[in-house]
Design brief:
The complex is a heterodimer of chains A (188) and B (241). Chain A has 188 residues and is an all-alpha fold. Chain A has 8 helices and no strands. The longest helix of chain A has 22 residues, at 163-184. The radius of gyration of chain A is 19 Å and the shape is globular. Chain B contains 12 helices and no strands. Chain B is mainly α and 241 residues long. Chain B has helices at residues 9-18, 24-36, 38-68, 83-105, 108-116, 133-143, 147-160, 165-177, 181-192, 200-213, 217-226, 232-240. In chain B, helix 7 (147-160) runs antiparallel to helix 8, helix 8 (165-177) runs antiparallel to helix 9 (181-192) and helix 9 runs antiparallel to helix 10 (200-213). Classes of the chains: A mainly alpha (188), B mainly alpha (241). Chains A and B meet through helix 2, helix 3, helix 5, helix 6 and helix 8 of A and helix 3 and helix 8 of B.
Chain lengths: 188, 241
């Protein structure tokens, strides 16, 4: 239940596991159930529907990332829904402050959220951008392995390859991605 | 693509570590090595960031799709003559007629209440999950105008979670929609005073409307002055006349 003050429930660990495994049904529920509150908040605080959507997706990815990296702490006084709302709220207020719009609500210390260091965040953004430059077959292969968490055996069966070929192809795609990254940012 | 690449053993091992596919003994040995091997630490970090970046690219595409498939938050542009639209139009005509009648016959506060009040539309209920089942089932009742059923269910849930602002807000909304503003006020006051709640602005707005329905213009003004609701100024001006 969406709440700023909800309690930890028995399914929380299962929920975190499902998010880590990118289970589509759980991700979709989590996304769709919590968007209306964020939209209300953004609209009530000088924003537009497009801005609400953008800030919500940014917050959703930040929460997803923290869950993946084990940075989301299960606490008795928190819930993923409240955490997502808090991140979205923080990001929107931060955006308002940066764009110096009217009706600024001051941020209190407990509303600050822990984010990845800027350097790591920048590297992830560069990876995302490089990934979009890969060919379709490489993108599919890497998504199957990393996002859908498919085993090499499953991928090999789906693509009618041997497992060894699947492994080699995946490695080549990964190398290709690294090459694009190196050309983009010589320092990394 | 061919079969002649050499895959460094470390990469395969690091991936099994990150995917938590290592048996406990191997994982322990790997963690010992990781604690002292700077080069291995770099490989782990690089592989982790690559994995996150690739997943986020896929996730972003899925989020766009989830958004497109979002249950409508506001009326969608659909077939003009669908049954639902005709039913909705009938409700609006009846409500407008009632509003007009009240404008002619009711007190000023009541008239304003009728002009400004529209029940909170509620939260989307298509995607309920097991742990939220009772909450969303009651939301279905609320949206169908079965306010008493919704109130009974949410009231029971509030006993278990007295600090839950979502429950308090929708209980207040349901009492107000059920034409019992005094009861609505007890819940809405609590949420309107909770600045951490995402419902704080709407609670303030409905609190003002509940006071209006009670005929208390001063308390309605006081509630409006504390909210940032987008229609606040409009109603405040009416109240100052």
């Amino acid at each position: 239940m969406p709440s700023a003050t909800g309690n930890i429930n028995d399914d929380l660990e299962e929920f975190v596991g499902a998010i880590r495994a990118n289970e589509e049904k759980v991700l979709k529920q989590f996304y769709q159930q919590n968007y209306p509150m964020v939209e209300k908040f953004v609209l009530d605080n000088s924003g537009t529907i497009d801005e609400a959507r953008d800030i919500y997706q940014e917050a959703f990815i930040a929460v997803w990332r923290n869950i993946q990296l084990g940075r989301f702490q299960l606490r008795a006084d928190s819930s993923p829904q409240a955490y997502l709302f808090k991140v979205a709220k923080y990001k929107w207020l931060d955006h308002l402050r940066a764009t110096k719009r009217n009706n600024l609500v001051p941020l209190s210390g407990d509303e600050e959220i822990e984010e990845l260091p800027a350097e790591k965040h920048g590297r992830i953004e560069a990876i995302k951008s490089s990934f979009s430059q890969l060919g379709e077959s490489c993108r599919e292969l890497l998504e199957r392995f990393y996002y859908l968490k498919q085993s090499m055996r499953t991928i090999a069966a789906a693509k009618k390859w041997t497992e060894a070929t699947a492994k080699n192809n995946k490695y080549r795609c990964l190398q290709h991605l690294r090459d694009i990254l190196k050309n983009k940012k010589p320092n990394h | 693509m061919n079969n002649h690449d050499h895959i460094p053993a470390d990469i395969e091992q690091v991936e099994r570590f990150l995917r938590k596919e290592m048996p406990p003994e191997e994982r322990e040995a790997f963690l010992d090595r990781l604690a002292t091997d700077g080069e291995l630490q770099q490989v782990v970090e690089e592989m982790q960031l690559l994995s996150i970046g690739i997943q986020e690219a896929a996730l972003q595409r899925n989020l766009d799709q989830f958004h497109k498939e979002m249950p409508a938050l506001r009326p969608a542009k659909r077939n003009v003559f669908s049954t639902r639209r005709v039913a909705a139009a009938a409700v609006i005509i009846v409500a407008s007629a009632l509003a007009f009648w009240l404008l002619l016959n009711g007190g000023r506060e009541e008239k304003l209440f009728t002009s400004y009040y529209q029940p909170d539309p509620g939260l989307p209920t298509l995607m309920s999950s097991a742990d939220n089942y009772e909450f969303y089932q009651a939301m279905v009742d609320y949206k169908s105008g079965e306010y008493e059923k919704a109130i009974a269910a949410w009231d029971a849930l509030l006993q278990q979670q007295p600090a839950n602002d979502t429950l308090s807000y929708y209980l207040g909304s349901a009492w107000l929609a059920n034409k019992q503003p005094a009861k609505a006020i007890t819940y809405l006051e609590k949420v309107a005073a909770n600045t951490n709640s995402s419902f704080v602005q709407d609670a303030g707005w409905y609190l003002a409307l509940a006071w209006l329905q009670q005929g208390d213009k001063e308390k309605a003004k006081a509630a409006l002055e504390k909210t940032q609701h987008r229609r606040r100024e409009e109603l405040l001006q009416e109240l100052r006349r």
